[in-house]
Each structure stands twice: as structure tokens, then as C-alpha cells.
UniProtKB/TrEMBL annotation, chains A, B:
Keywords: Hydrolase, Metal-binding, tRNA processing, Zinc. This is tRNA-specific adenosine deaminase. Binds 1 zinc ion per subunit. Catalyzes the deamination of adenosine to inosine at the wobble position 34 of tRNA(Arg2). GO terms for biological process: tRNA wobble adenosine to inosine editing.
Length: 142, 142
């Protein structure tokens, strides 16, 4: 989670909502990414999406069943869908996101019968720091 | 929808599940794409995602509020999330997808309170041909 928080800080420095994600295979960091939709002109460029895409490209396959995802914020519906498509084994996330989260809020995607793969999910990992980064970012913009 | 069906046929020829998508701005085709997760080693490479990303890159921004999306199959949760993030104005889709769809099935994402943008949605456009492409594809693989 430390590497994901570092990526989140890098996002904030670029003026992006501070969220970071890392794909791990065992102890190995396969890919890390910072949230970057504005910078990249890509509405799909959430940290999770970029990390999953980079990991799949690096491993040369479209399924990551031997990988785990660490992310500083509860994934949204888009990212939860991508996690299921990628067959990620475990998801560890930081702060809960009552406004846009899709794991423990809203669609609760992994509990839907139309979700074809349910990772193990662990929330609240490093949520203090992850949440503080987000609060500071939005406070500075007000 | 004709261009989206053409992209779906191209996907089938590459051995991918035949789904195609087109982003339009008024009468102008901004981007068209075929489903390609296996070919691209990218679990997020659904037709809708590729078309939205290409359109955003072409227009140099991360919001497509003046654009519509045409897609041959009901979008999944990942793609519905991306459609909302991109602020797509209208979604026209072909065949319904009871197994993986997230518009009229499963999470019904656009009706969730955590969905920040609800496009106008029109289903069943060209569904006969879109559904036949999918049935033929899966029948040939059995």
C-alpha cells in the first residue's frame, strides 16, 4: 500500500484526484499507476485501470489470476468491472468511497449475479493516509 | 449502428467476441473500435472502452458530453462506468446481455445513486443482427 500511496501523492502533484494503485504478483510489483484522466485526456484512466492495463501488457496476457491489486480508494463500477474481467485474485483498498464506490456502496458489483469473478476483498487498508490525501486535495481546491 | 456492426464482424474475424462500438459527434464518426482484449493483452479492451479512449484522445479532452455511443451489445459495468465518467450524452445499444449487462441487468448502473452522469439510453437498436453475430460466434466455438 505504501507504493500505492506514493502514486496517489504523484497524482495530486499533477492536479489529479489523488488515487494510486499497484498490481503485485506475490512480492513482485508488476505495475504501479497514478490516477490521470485529465493529464492523459482519457476518462477511463483511473489508477486501477492504468495499473491493470500495464500489468497485462507486461505479462503478455489479458488475465491476471495470479495477481493482487492494491488501491488507495474503493474502486468505482468501471474499475470493479475491470478487476473482474482481469480475474484479479485479491483487492486491498484504502478509503471507502460512499459517493462513487462500487464495492461496498452503490452497485456492490462483486455481489451481483452478473459479476463473473469475485476477488477476495479487504477494505480499510491504510485508509487514514489515503483519506487524508483526498481531503487535503479537495480542501485546497475550494 | 451499421459501423458498429462492421466493427463487431471484424472482432469475430480476429477470434474476439463480436462486439463493436462507435462514438459519434452529431453526424461525424469520431472513433470506431472492435472488442479486442485477447489481441491487445488488455482485459479492459472492450469495444466501448477503446472507442471512448480513442475519441477522447482525438478531441484532446476527458469528457465527451457532446458525443453519443453506439454499441452492438448492452454495456457491462466497466463500460457503463466509463460512459458515465466520459459524460456521453446518449447510448444506443443492440442486443441485451442478461449475463453480463449492467444497464438493464445486474447493477443497472445508470439507475444507481452513485452514478454521477446518466446518459439517455436506447436499447434494442439493430439487436437482430447484433445478437445473430454473437450466437454464430459462440455456436462455432462449441
Amino acid at each position: 500500500m505504501r507504493a500505492a500511496l506514493e502514486a496517489a501523492r504523484a497524482a495530486a502533484e499533477s492536479g489529479e484526484v489523488p488515487v494510486g494503485a499497484v498490481v503485485m504478483r506475490g512480492e513482485e510489483v508488476v505495475a504501479a499507476a497514478a490516477n490521470a484522466p485529465r493529464t492523459l485526456h482519457d476518462p477511463t484512466a483511473h489508477a486501477e485501470m492504468l495499473a491493470i492495463r500495464a500489468a497485462a501488457a507486461k505479462l503478455g496476457r489479458d488475465r491476471l489470476e495470479d495477481c493482487d491489486l492494491w488501491v488507495t480508494l474503493e474502486p468505482c463500477a468501471m474499475c470493479a468491472g475491470a478487476i473482474a474481467h482481469a480475474r484479479i485474485a485479491r483487492v486491498y483498498y484504502g478509503a471507502a468511497d460512499p459517493k462513487g464506490g462500487a464495492v461496498e456502496h452503490g452497485p456492490r458489483f462483486f455481489s451481483q449475479p452478473t459479476c463473473h469473478h469475485r476477488p477476495e476483498v479487504y477494505g480499510g487498508i491504510g485508509e487514514g493516509e489515503a483519506g487524508a490525501l483526498l481531503r487535503d486535495f479537495f480542501a485546497a481546491r475550494r
